[in-house]
Amino acid sequence: MEDFVDSLKDLYLEKITTSFSPQKLLIFVLFTLAQIIIQDSTHGDSFFLSLIDIKIQDLFDFDDGFFSKVRILNLILSFFLTTLNFLLYNKLKIFFFNQIPRQKKFKSSVNKMIQNTRLNMSLEKRINIDVMHELAESIKRKKLEFIQKHDAGIISMTFLLMGLVSLYTPTKNDIFVCALLSIFILWIQRNSYVFYLSKLVPLLVVHKVLLEKEFDLQDSSVFDKE
């Protein structure tokens, strides 16, 4: 029976590791670690203080360390929390993203950029093609920076959820850290869209005009990593 359970656990872990991105796998491991900390904690223990007090060697000790205590239920809960984490963060960033087109000044600025690009673009197709290639590379770099900001946001959301799960026995330290994480996540949303509007939109507008396509402020493909 034990062999069957072990093989089932190995199969489950293999399935998870092959279907998860490195980022999702990291978050999955963090949620699993959080559950073990909560299981081992006593009333009044600070979750975040317990987290930073973990020794690295205990993480890699699969005989007596933290991960030696992992059960199938922990893995299932970690999978659920990982999915929930991405769902909540995606809803949050899309909510903020959708606020942009509602601002008339942004629409007006985009229209001016489109007009200026059309007035100043070259009549020679070859030159425009060269410009498009250069713009595509710049857009790729800026888009990566934009995505990295949200990567930091989703990791912060992970720690926030870990902290919230532990608040059934709240401590002042944990409440304070959760509040800071909430503020930081909201700051990332604002910072990301300031970056989007100031660094990405001008490049995207020119690129779309040269391609003779319409620019959409709500084009969520900016979040795509490919």
Describe the structure.
By secondary structure, this protein is mainly α. It has one domain. Helices cover 76% and strands 0% of the residues. It has helices at residues 2-19, 22-40, 47-52, 56-59, 72-99, 104-120, 125-165, 172-210. Helix 2 (22-40) crosses helix 5, helix 2 (22-40) runs parallel beside helix 7 and helix 6 runs parallel beside helix 8.
Low-confidence stretches: 11-18
Number of domains: 1
Amount of beta strand: under 5%
H/E element sequence: HHHHHHHH
Structural class: mainly alpha
Helix content: over 70%
Computed CA radius of gyration, to the nearest angstrom: 23 Å
Distance between the termini: 44 Å
Summarize the structure.
This protein has eight helices and no strands.
Task: Name some characteristics of this structure.
elongated, mainly alpha, 0% strand, 8 helices, 226 residues
Sequence-ordered SSE layout with sheet pairings:
Elements: H1 2-19, H2 22-40, H3 47-52, H4 56-59, H5 72-99, H6 104-120, H7 125-165, H8 172-210
